[in-house]
Every structure is written in C-alpha cells, then in structure tokens.
Amino acid sequence: MKFFIDTADLDEIREAASWGCLDGVTTNPSLFAKTGGKLEDFEPHMVKICEICEGLPVSAESTAMTTEEMIAEGKRLAGLAPNIVVKLPICAESLAATRALAAEGVRVNMTLVFGVPQAILAARAGARYISPFVGRFDDIGEDGIEQLANVVQAVHNYSYGYWDEEGGPEIISASIRTPNHVTQAALMGADIATVPMAALKKCLFHPLTKAGLESFEADWKKVTGK
Ligand code: G3P
Hints:
single chain, 226 residues, alpha/beta, TIM Barrel, 52% helix, globular, binds SN-glycerol-3-phosphate
C-alpha cells in the first residue's frame, strides 16, 4: 500500500517527503484554507507542492460547480505541473467532467465517496483515483472500515479500460484518522492511504520502539564506557 500525505502544509509535506516513503499528496479546500492562503495563492501553492514532490501525484481540488467549469478548471490545474491530479467531488456534473478529462489523459481523483455505488460510477466515468472516506463514516456511527472494504473489493472486481496500464483506478483510503485505519486499509488491499501528518507520526512512533531504543543506548554505554 502506498502512503500519501493529506495536507496542504508545505513544511509537513517536506517533512513527510524526507522520510523516504512518501508516494503522493492530497489536498482539499479545507486543507488549503488552513494554510492561510488566499485565492490568488492557490495555484502557486499547488505548484510548490508539485515541485517538492516531483514525479508524485498531487491532488488539487476543483471548486467548480458545472461540468463545463470543472472541465475548464481541471485542464487549467492539470496544466500547472505534470504531476497534478484533478480532485472532483462526486456528483452528476463531475462524472461527466471526469469522462471528458480522462479522454484527454487528465487524471481525476474522485472524492467525497461514501460507498460502493458512487465508487463504481466514478470508475466507469474514468476516475484514475477513487477516495472513499473512512473517518467521516465513523463520525456518524457507521463503520468506515467496512465501507472501505466493500469499495476496495467491488472496484477491484472489474477493469474499466481507462488507466489499466497504470494499474488504475486506485483506491485512496481517505479521511484516515488513526494507525488502525491504516492497518485495516492495508490488510484489505486498499491501494493507497492518504494520512494527515499527526496520524502519520502515530504510525511511525511506538512506545515499545522508544523503550527498546533507550535500553539499547543504555547498554551500549556500558560497552563503550561513554
Ligand atoms: O482529503 C479528504 C479527507 O482525507 C478528509 O479527511 O479527516 O477531514 O474527514 P477528514
């Protein structure tokens, strides 16, 4: 399973990239708003992310409302850098836009996906990535991991003809909040987990690793006498 970072914060992206295991970045309007950026900063900011993560897919979300606007904005965003993926929220307009963008080789990440029917529609329209949300299902008392498992199995049951040579469509486990979400996503065969920095750090650090390292260091001092 690949790791994406779910943030628009440049320092977090640089830090995650420095770990050597980052496979991509996802952003959304809320994550960009958190950076304090204004509208005119949006595209330059996406370009900066693409430069930090050269060659890795970087999802930039369109806020257009009509199919025509989504296609135009999608092409514009895709033109910012070769590694841009256009993120669209699932709806009738974005399905049509995805079909048009895919026909021109533009990669779409279909977001705000809650369940198998939406995921299959996105795949049929030609989405390169499909992002089922986990945590937001948990937030309303449903089982986000079970929903994700259903999407992974249903989408992987078929091939869709658009992105076969790249192994797409890939499922991005989104709205990931905990290391257990990451564990469950990997066990079920999700292609990607997009994880916020706080949860990514929780995936890396373990109290027993810390305790083990401390005891190794203490014992090595006895060996070296320093
Ligand atoms: O990128 C979209 C998704 O990961 C958002 O997560 O925590 O706001 O539900 P969250």
